[in-house]
Amino acid sequence: MAEKTRVKPILDVHEKPNLALWVTLSLQHLFAMFGATVLVPILTGLPASTALTTSGIGTLTYLLITRGKIPAYLGSSFAFINPIIVLSTTHSVETAMLGAFLASLVYGVVAMLIYKFGVNWLLKLLPPVVVGPIIIVIGLGIAPTAINMAMYKTVDGAKVYDLKYFLVALITLAATIFCCVALRGFAKQIPVLLGIVFGYIVAVFAGLVDFKPVIDAPWFSLPKFTIPFVTYAPEWNVAALAMVPIAIVTINEHIGHQMVLSEVVGRNFLKDPGLHRSILADGTAMMFASLLGGPPSTTYGENIGVLAITRIFSVFVLGGAAVFALILSFVGKFSALISTIPSPVMGGVSILLFGIIASSGLRMLVDEKVDLSINRNLVISSVIIVLGVGGAMLKFESINFELPAMALAAISGVLLNAFLPKEDKK
Asked: Strand, helix or coil at 8?
């Protein structure tokens, strides 16, 4: 990738804005990441305040390890939503956090291998015919979560269909879609956040919001941290391994973000500071998140979009956004306000968001010109999708270990790609 500045930056990577502008630009990046970063803990049952804490720490860690050369923001990863829900339900939150910790170690191993052998081996291991269908599985696999949040309320432990819930969800969905297709400029970068705000207002008028938790909450409170190594038990230690294969997807996502960032900023970040360093930084941020009980982190396309629009590439601006996220995580009333968002509002937004995730996998197949008339490609993609969406699992009751559908689909895709013979189009 040639190093070239496609568009002259307003602020380059190492330029520092004046204080007033600095605050404004950092808040802009905070808003860009906020909706998606908070959505993940809400869906998985993790504290939103902890997600903001780990997002801020992760971003600052990333900037430090990459020597302040890559303007990137790290927020909650959607790829881990389903594994966190499964492990938290069948075992414990600590199990899920241990799984995220183990997944972060994969980043360190991959970073060392890239440093030693380059990146071509990884691209051969994870071609688009494998990664595309896995991304489709991620989106479709969590689709029932969105529908359940949109349509049902819980009464005495049972799910009951509620028309009011579903109408609020549909209105929220419509508002989010409108923001996606009709708005321009920076507002177009935060349709999820705007959709949640509009849906929340509708939910207030529908009588679905209880403000008592906000009134009772203190202004200052510590985020709730969950430390995975405090309550050690062999059974969840084994089960946590099920989350490791998800790193296959998120590492590939990371590489894609670095390529896009290099194009936007006009610098070859794959060479300087190097892909190995950025992957190591991403994995370290994920490790910190898992040790504190926050959702695993990843670089955010939303913030890359803000960089492209504003042409302000300053790492100081991204660092400022991380600091603001940290500050907000300790505001008790803010965390309480997040907790009052009704499930149909989040369900309505998730219908679109999870669909976009699945569609982005399809888009990868199209953009990379994956030829499904070739039987090998057809077999790989078909097996991945059916195993993942169908809910297949490997379960070993004797050791209390379960490999969930998404992990099984990812491993199957990698193995099929490695061992199926190549063939030419007939």
From this structure: coil
Strand positions, DSSP E, 121-184: 152-155, 158-161
DSSP string for residues in 167-196:
HHHHHHHHHHHHHHHH--GGGGG-HHHHHH
Residue 225 lies in a domain: yes
Instruction: Please report whether residue 379 resides in a domain.
Output: no
Is there a domain that residue 197 lies in? Answer: yes
**Cα four-point dihedral sign 35, 40, 43, 46:** negative
How would you write 193-262 as a 3-class SS string?
HHHHHHHHHHHHHCCCCCCHHHHHCCCECCCCCCCCCCCCCHHHHHHHHHHHHHHHHHHHHHHHHHHHHH
Two tokens at 383?
A: 């097996």
Q: Find tokens 């946590």 and name the residue.
A: 240
Domain region containing 207: 19-369
| Structural domain total, the chain | 1
Q: Which residues of the chain have pLDDT under 70?
A: 1-7, 186, 189, 229-237, 398-401, 424-426
| Residue 45 backbone dihedrals phi, psi, to 5 degrees | 85, 5
Output the pLDDT for position 4.
46
- Distance, CA of 327 to CA of 377 (rounded, Å): 48
CA distances from 228 to 2, 231, 287, 289 (A): 43, 7, 11, 11
Residue 300's closest CA among 67, 69, 103, 34? Answer: 34
CB atoms within 10 A of CB 400: 16
pLDDT digits (tens, 9 = 90+) for 161-214: 989 999 999 999 999 899 888 887 767 767 777 888 899 999 999 999 988 988
Which DSSP category does 66 fall into?
T
Q: CA angle 226-231-234, nearest 5°?
A: 125
- Which residues, including other chains, have CB under 8 Å from residue 417's CB and lie 6 or more apart? 125, 127, 129, 130, 380
Q: What CA–CA distance (Å, rounded) separates 218 from 108? A: 39
Q: Is residue 377 part of a domain?
A: no
